[in-house]
Amino acid sequence: MYFSKWLLDSRKPIDPYQLHKKIWQLFPDKADEERSFLFRVEKTGQRCTQCILVQSACLPQSASNELLLLKGPKEVHFELKSGGRYRFMLCANPTKRINDKDGKAKNQGKVRVPLIDEAETVAWLKRQFEGSAEIDAVELIQKNLIHFRKSNKDKNHFGKIQTVTFLGMLTVIDSELLIGKIVKGIGPAKAFGCGLVTLAKI
């Protein structure tokens, strides 16, 4: 697994889905395969600049004048032990499914909506780590409503998602299961900068 940090220097604002497409250009040999990377926007500066942390299964290659390498890539081998305690950070899209009043067949009568209540949001987080780690403490440090545009042939689809940034401490229960979750990412909306977990040993 590789970690790298990039600076997006764009002349105009770019939403997370468009950013996702630009990051995919760092893996030109994997264009037709499933996504094998996660990313998180860590800082947004002036003139539409964004500092981006990328976790990838493959070594990224600089392929865009807009994405400038700041740090890495660094190869990391996760060495977690059961009982180990870590600080963690995660930007995620906590959601639940409710009945869809329009009854859209493709959603099997369900639609995904964001969790608003803090207790429900924390409970959602704990379920994501169930069996792999115990959440000892957690703080919701930021909530963002993100708007995006997806192009499909000649049509544009506009949407929005609610993201939550978690900061906390956890204790490892099953190291292999936890590593699998870290590699895969936590929750939905990974194409919008959600799901990447970073750990720091206490």
TrEMBL record:
It holds the Pfam family CRISPR_assoc. This is CRISPR-associated protein, Cse3 family.
